[in-house]
Structure prediction request, 132 residues.
Amino acid sequence: MTSSPQSGKFSKSSRLLKHADFQAVYKQGKRHFSGNVTVFYRERKDKDSASSQPGPRVGFTVGKVLGGSVQRNRIRRRLRAAVQRHVAQLTRPLDVVLHPRKSVMTMEFTQLDSEVDQLLAALQAGPRKMKS
Prediction:
């Protein structure tokens, strides 16, 4: 089995990986609620970014309160798949953390996909279009 790059996979530079980055989003950023996902986001300054990539960086938090590892991983995979389909519409330099509710595991994927599309469109539109 060879390790070939997967299409649609988030590159390392487009993911939030460090605990400090997540904490910065939670402490300095804003949040936006939807029915099944809470989004925490903050505008990234050039000096803040260790990477030279100008676009968004995305992270996912799926806490133990949402179930065992199998359930949490399924929620994370579903959410990641929905975000991968729409992340190209985000061009602003944002750090984004998505925090799903347990309902993400059982809801129709088309509904999740639509909700993520609306969330990312609202983030791209900017703070004037969102209620925090």
Q: What stands out?
A: Helices lie at 19-28, 69-86, 109-125. The mean pLDDT is 85.
